[in-house]
Amino acid sequence: QVQVVESGGGLVQSGGSLRLSCTASGSIVSISGMGWYRQAPGQSRDLVARITNGGNTNYADSMKGRFTISRDGAKNTVYLQMNSLKPEDTAVYYCNAAVQISSSSRFINYWGQGTQVTVSS
Known about the structure:
Elements: E1 2-7, E2 10-13, E3 18-26, E4 30-39, E5 46-52, E6 57-59, E7 67-72, E8 77-82, E9 91-100, E10 108-111, E11 115-120
Parallel strand pairs: 2-11
Antiparallel strand pairs: 1-3, 3-8, 4-5, 4-9, 5-6, 7-8, 9-10, 9-11
């Protein structure tokens, strides 16, 4: 059993900043990577950023360097610092964790419930 929980969403004006947090907990042997995805109404769920257990990061080009992902491995927690927010960033932001629950098992992707980010103009 694995739980992934996000927090930190809210309402912000265009140009403002938010910091999202996500923690994975439960029967976790290891996590190969964690990431953030977002989904606006009527649209697909798209990558925002990911970070591996080795510290490698990957960002969607559309973020244009405005977002930064970081990780606290000891806490199984990732953060997403979002700066220069735009109305087009409005979406539900979901946290993903690739989790191994036993030494012989494969890695499975677990998802959080999402946190709403709304950017007003």
